[in-house]
Amino acid sequence: MFIARAALLIPALFLVLPGAVAAQSDPDDVTCHVEQVPMRDGVLLATEVYLPRRSGNYPVALTRSPYTRGSLAAGSNCDNERLLALARRGYVGLNQDARGRYRSGGAFDPFQQEGNDGYDTVEWAAEQPWSDGRVGIFGASYVGATTLQAAARAPPSLVTAVAEITASDYRDNWTYVNGAFDLHLNLGWTLAFFLADSYRRDMEGSGLSLEEMDRRVAARMEAGRRDLLSEWIWILPLNSMPAFREFAPYYYDWLAHPDYDDYWRRVDVEQRYGDIDVPVLHTGGWYDVFAVGTVRNFAGMRAGGGSPAARNGTKLVMTCCGHTRDQGLITWGPEAQTFDATLVDRWLDHYLRGSDNGIDTEPDVQLFVMVPPDTGTEGGGFYLAADDFPLPQARPVRFHLSSGGSANTRHGDGALGREAPSGPPDRFVYDPADPVPTLGGNLCCGDFLMRGALDQSELELRDDVLVYTSAPLAEDLAVIGPVTVRLWAASTARDTDFTAKLVDVHLDGIAHNVLDRIVRARYRNGLRSAPSLITPGEIYEYTIPLGDTATVFRRGHRIRLEVSSSNFPQYDRNLNTGHPLGQDAEMVTATQTIFHDAEHPSHVELTVAPDVRIPAGR
Predict the structure, then answer these.
(1) Angle subtended at Cα 444 by Cα 438 and Cα 448, rounded to the nearest 5 degrees
(2) What is the predicted pLDDT for the residue at 18?
(3) What is the pLDDT of residues 562-592, one digit of tens each?
(4) Pick from 211, 254, 407, 429: CA 20 to 30 A from residue 372's CA?
(5) Helices (H), 513-613
(6) Active site residue 141
(7) Choosing from 141, 198, 402, 565, which is the catalytic residue?
(8) Can you list the domains of the chain with their CATH numbers?
(9) What H or E segment, with its residue span, contains residue 265?
(10) Which of 187, 152, 149, 182 is nearest to 166 (CA)?
């Protein structure tokens, strides 16, 4: 079942939830100190310990972050508002610098280090004299990765976890997406969040003043922000990009492991759901860069969690945007990023303190359903409560591609409809020297490109973008769940990419992106299969899972599908040579052919919830 409800007008929950809970007592009721916590290999990790001043044994709320410091020179210095608030409410709050970050020892190696370190920290916390032996772990984005990596190691003292806007498989839908290197994310995230501390650590012991170190770090960061879009994204081969060589060697490890191998397998949460035996609260956003992983984590835990409590207790909350908050041309109203801001606190209270607050009987799924405007840019939406996701009553609906062979640009003859596919194939030339530029979407990090829902009309004038558009809809169509594109295509190249973008065309002609994704031809047989090059001229079937959404295509709007071969710099350019990924500088153009006939029924499959209606007044 599902229930539509009014959204809660409460500040959104994001990252470490600053100020989400008002202090219930004087700040002097909390003490804080830093402890160096030993890991199994002897490395010490700096951990802020926020304690209620009244002595006793308390449950522990742990977060493990590579982002603790907010400035170049200063540390968190026991001023984390979220942990202070938890301590005032009767928890011991722990805020740990990840290995190799800020005050912690060791070398930072994203993803690879977090499982063992998380396990060791949970068990250390449970044994301390101020602990009652019960530990919960929480966090968002990469801190969500530290959360799930710890949970997947099943430390005996872990009671529950909260994983916010985070991924499930760090090869797919983080460093790569369906085989394409997520260039913008990997460059922007590494630069914006990791390089400053790495530069500073390298200068420690040099005798330089803090002010001089600040100056040098700031200068290098400013240069990086200047060069990322103007120079770095264009460098070929990808693995020759020099800026990260000294301070972020893991970037080159990602490039050296384009296939799903042991490097990725050992940190793949999707392979470890059976090892997670505690209930997990998953939160995310439809335009978030990790939306796919959030939904997969929920579904995987529901189906294969390691205990009845894990399977039955796991819940999902999806807002509009996550990392894409406050961006985009189309806005979704004041309710778009809100849900009950007390939810995480009540979750922790229930599982760590035994509070009978009803959290276990609340809906398992809460979804924000986006409602775009007919004209202008101010949209809205509403929340939906359900027992599962996708909604049990949802059904697949296919819209087939058709044309007269000239679907190039939005002025072409490409059509999208429920009738059988028809018409001669469409063709375009993909030139990696002139790729289709990224325009909005599920992006992160560092604010180098605009994220979210933007007008795609100008891109749809490019001759290398095929555009298929439906007739105006006779009634509202609620699309809630996965969207999948299947294309039958041929290329003159030995390897290439195909992209697909689902678009909502408003009454005034604004065409905003709903979902988009990519597939690399050599990985067409599955992301965990061995890569296989294609034969030029041969027709292959390509499946492009666009991810999940919850949106209403309103009456009079048109559904549109864009098909091309690049989305740059969100994804690296396929150079069409078939050479090893990341090691190539040679570029060749490719002629792409998209088929849509009885034998090659190219289509987009939407998950439609026929009983969902926009509430009156929305």
Answers:
(1) 60
(2) 30
(3) 999 999 999 999 999 999 999 999 999 999 9
(4) 407
(5) none
(6) yes
(7) 141
(8) 2-170+267-386 (3.40.50.1820), 181-259 (no CATH), 395-608 (2.60.120.260)
(9) helix 262-265
(10) 149
Does residue 288 carry a catalytic annotation?
yes
Instruction: Tell me the pLDDT tens digit for each residue of 498-521.
Output: 999 999 999 999 999 999 999 999
Which pair of tokens denotes residue 48?
């802020």
Sign of CA pseudo-dihedral 337, 341, 346, 347 = positive
> For residue 385, what are its two tokens?
């409560």
* Cβ-based neighbours of 507, under 8 Å, separated by 6 or more: 374, 375, 556, 557
- Cβ partners under 8 Å of residue 164, min gap 6: 13, 14, 15, 138, 139, 140, 141, 144, 282, 283, 284
Please give the pLDDT value at position 70. Answer: 52
Q: Are the C-beta atoms of 456 and 410 separated by less than 8 Å?
A: no
At 201 the pLDDT is 85
Question: Is 557 a residue of the active site?
Answer: no
* DSSP H or E segment with residue 83: helix 81-88
Opening angle at CA 277, ends 275 and 279, nearest 5: 130
Contact 10, 338 (CB under 8 A): yes
Q: Which residue has the tokens 């035996």?
A: 277
| pLDDT for 108 | 96
Q: What separation, in Å, do the N-terminal and C-terminal C-alpha atoms of the chain show?
A: 21
User: What DSSP element (H or E) covers 224?
Assistant: helix 210-230
CA dist., res. 541 & res. 538, Å (int): 10
What pLDDT is attached to residue 339? 76
State how far the Cα of 513 lies from the Cα of 456, in Å rounded to an integer: 7
- pLDDT (0 to 100) of residue 189: 95
Catalytic residue among 172, 182, 288, 495: 288
Q: Which of 415, 329, 339, 420 is nearest to 373 (CA)?
A: 329
Report d(CA 173, CA 577) in Å as an integer: 24
Q: Pick the catalytic residue: 184, 323, 350, 557?
A: 323
497 in Cβ contact with 488 (< 8 Å): no
**How many other β-carbons are positioned within 10 Å of the β-carbon of residue 185?**
25
Of 39, 61, 86, 261, nearest to 147 (Cα)? 61
**Phi, psi of 58, rounded to the nearest 5 degrees:** -130, 155
Gap between the Cα atoms of 298 and 303, Å rounded: 9
Residue 355 and residue 271: Cα distance in Å, rounded? 32
CA distance linking residue 350 with residue 355, whole number of Å: 4
